[in-house]
Amino acid sequence: MDENTIPALVEKLCRSLSNGKSSETSKEYEAKYKLALQLLSSQQLSLHNHETEFSIVQNIKKLLGSKERYQDARKFDELYTRLTSSSILKNRKAVLELMYYLAQTPASAATEPVIRHSFTLPSLTTTIVKTPKNTEVPYCPLASATSQKKTAAQSTLYGHSDVSNHILLREILYAFQGIQGQVFQWDATHENLQLKSTVKLPKALRQMVLSLVELGWLFHKVQKYCESPKTESTCGLAARAFAAALQEELSEYYRLLAVLQSQMEVHTIRSGDTVGVETQGLTFQRLLVWTKEPKARMKLLAALVEACHGQRGGALASVIHSFVLQGNATLKTVVLKILVQVCRPLYEMLMLWTFEGELRDPYGEFFIGVNLAVDPGSLWNDKYYERSAMVPNFFTQEQGHQVATTGKSICFLREICLDKSPIPGMNQIRRTAEERSESLLSLDWESIEEAYSTASQYLLQVLLDRYHIKLHLCALRQYLLLGQGDFVNHLMKLVEPELDKPATTRMSRLLASILDKCIRCTNSQYDDADVLKRLDVRISEPSQGDSGWDVFSLDYKVDGPLGTILTPEVKTRYETLFYALWRSKRMEWIMSKLRHQQLTEGRQLRGLLEVQGVLHQAQLLLSEMIHFAQEMSHYLSFEVVACAWEQLSIALRSSKTMDQLLTAHEHFLQTVTSRALLDEESKDIRDHLRGIHEAMLQFSQIQERLFSSAILEVEKRQGKSKSTIETFLPSIKAKLCAISASYQNFVQTFLFMLSSHSDPNLQGLGVRLDFNECYQRKDSRLSMSLTYFHRRMTTLSVPSLLH
Questions:
Q1: b/e for 536-569, b at 16 or more Cβ within 10 A?
Q2: Beta strands in 251-330 (DSSP E)
Q3: Stated pTM of the model
Q4: What is the pLDDT of residues 751-789, one digit of tens each?
Q5: Running DSSP on this structure, what letter comes out for residue 642?
Q6: Nearest to 736, CA basis, from 707, 711, 769, 713
């Protein structure tokens, strides 16, 4: 025997503890040596070991003190102090625990069975019994003399049986393997073994036999799952790993059956005149006791098979993990062993996705899915997605999101940013994660979180420094949200002649040239060249009766990483915002032109006394409209867009991940949309605002007709021609009164709806629009206190006002 092997070292230790050469010392040595080997081969010894080294030392001292061995206790304390200062012995705690266990265990315990396999095997160690003539007879420690008497009286206990005990035990062992024979037959309906109708057994024996045969039914259920055809395309890698783990458990079960089969022999020894001693290695009672724990284990495997039927991937791991939460430590260990094997393919997928951004999941088992039909520009939002059904239940939602985002960040860098270089520090994080974790259950989440943070920050740095995302967002605010004042005013002046034409006129190229001219004539010429190259004109599909104002908008071309932020859906929202802001700017522009017309052309009409009353009425109405248009334009430009942009700028500076950047931009769009009366809640208010704008456009047409007709009348009177003032003045006056009344009604209802809106910014807008309480004096509803009850009532009464 090699002197460095574990048995040899244990033998030396036991000999040193058993000094002397007497027979009693030799027996003590053999008992301790057997017990030591059984303890070292036991798997259950460490399952319940929760004591510290200090507590073990104290227990040893207490044990020596209880036996009044005080001198030995002091000597042990000195030796332990020398041992702690030495680095020779590495497993100091385990050695102390072994010594303490040997000291408090009686020598008779060496013959007790020790669990060494997955399925509990019976202790079949034999000893020698001396007959009167010193004949050595193999003797099982479980078969005592009293048990032999009980075996002899077995027929009396159970009653008459058509089948001998030996044959029945043999058939039961066959049934443990799902094999039918002389006693049992297979029931295809219930898929189990039943006693044949021709076999007559006593009731007590029958119940015991049926209880034993249940193990065979459980075995058949597990074996059927293992032997069912499984391919990766139908069940996936995790299910195949589950079947392989079950097959390993069945291999241990086969070992149990082999041992039980070896105990089927009945040994009868006769020698001369010596009475023969009959020992039977297997009885019904022993078989019932020995198969108790294997039966519980097989029940667990059968329950796993039933619960996992049809499951795959992460869902399969979740089902198996639910069986871990139980009080039986042995069965819990079995489930954990199976779960580790099932999670091995998922663990490899997770590591590959997290650190390389590669999704190697051909059978759809991972909790990250991919949509290959998605446009590359929608990679971040639509290509990769989380499948909640495949997320293992021992993952939190945040952990699953971190894994998904980390791999998605790497894919985005490779495919969209065209950055193939390794992320700084990621390789070291991967090595640390692989060293600290061996399976999905022991995953090092600190390393995963570090990888998530590293990949996200590197991606954000690339977007901000290399692709200038913030610069492009600022360009969207300046041009599509009309934040560049000189550019907007000059553009409106240049495009007005073209946009007054019907929308069916082809004007794209002409408007594009006007846009270039506007850029060269304003401060926009100093903007970044990449920004100006992306700015373009967009003409929407016209409807019948539309003018150029209804189809014209500015466009901002995007590609690469910028397309992730400005998706087609986001660009549509920017287009909607542009139409609302452009229409408000246009109303302010038209009102400014009408005021200029009244101041310049009105001088020519001072001598025309007939129109002075109508002109005065037009001036009053125009003053109201100018105030409304300017307040609305100021509100949209400064209180809506500018304030929301300031919040977006702060969020961009504090963003650490791509998702945070997208969330900040989404919040910016939602804020602008809701405060600009473009959300669903403000639909009725938006309709009234459109009615006010239509009244302004109608007033513009009436004033144009009034001044053109009045100037023509002045020229006729100077030429002493016939006056035609009576032909146009009454109709203009009537239309002006009608528009004034319509405008007043729209504004009053608009203010009333603003006062009952949930957004305090819109309530403040209503106060500024009626700063001198002019409309409040005309409508008593506007003077009511905005209590909670009043707001509830107004939300119910506003729809009725529209009819």
A1: ebbbeeeeeeeebbbbbbbbbebeebbbbbbbee
A2: 266-271, 274-280
A3: 0.71
A4: 999 988 888 889 899 889 988 888 888 877 777 644 444
A5: I
A6: 707
